[in-house]
């Protein structure tokens, strides 16, 4: 997936396809800051999957949104976020990409998984 707005500088030819999933309940900003002459920054909403191409040496910074600021909460080498692409033989049989779960990385486990009925009847004030 090419970055249309911010293409990689021409000196970076070895690109890898990566995927990051925001598994928190907070909005995050994903940023690549260690590649000279290139700007990559994306907002990642809770539960959203971000797929992107970067040079192999790239590192993703994850900034977690707070009330009026964002705090860097993690730095991830992008080679740990690589998406397994099928070989040309496998591509003919299956056209979808497979995400390697062992390489996926998400920050925190803040998602509340309890199913609680929070609905209450409205009370009319007279």
Fold blueprint:
Layout: E1 15-21, E2 28-32, E3 40-44, E4 49-55, E5 59-65, E6 70-77, E7 83-84, H1 88-93, E8 98-99
Antiparallel strand pairs: 1-4, 2-3, 2-5, 5-6, 7-8
Keywords:
1 helix, 8 strands, mainly beta, 126 residues, 34% strand, 5% helix
How do the SSEs run, as a string of H and E? EEEEEEEHE
Counting DSSP H or I runs of 4 or more residues, the number of helices is: 1
Question: How many β-strand runs?
Answer: 8
- Strand arrangement within the widest β-sheet reads 3-2-5-6
Radius of gyration equals 19 Å
Helix-strand makeup class: mainly beta
**Helix percentage:** under 10%
Ranges where pLDDT stays below 50 over 5 or more residues in a row are 94-114
The biggest sheet amounts to:
4 strands, antiparallel
Strand content: 25-35%
Give the overall shape, derived from the CA principal axes: elongated
**Separation of termini?**
59 Å
Average predicted confidence as pLDDT? 74
């Amino acid at each position: 997936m090419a970055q249309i707005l911010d293409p990689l500088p021409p000196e970076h030819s070895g690109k890898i396809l990566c995927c990051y999933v925001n598994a928190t309940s907070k909005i995050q900003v994903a940023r690549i800051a260690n590649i000279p002459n290139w700007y990559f920054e994306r907002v990642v909403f809770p539960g959203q999957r971000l797929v992107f191409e970067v040079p192999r040496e790239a590192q993703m910074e994850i900034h977690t949104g707070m009330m009026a600021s964002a705090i860097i909460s993690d730095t991830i080498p992008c080679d740990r976020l690589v998406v397994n692409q099928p070989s040309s033989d496998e591509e003919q049989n299956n056209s979808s990409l497979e995400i390697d779960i062992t390489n996926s990385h998400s920050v925190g486990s803040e998602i509340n998984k309890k199913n609680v009925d929070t609905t209450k009847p409205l009370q009319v004030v007279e």
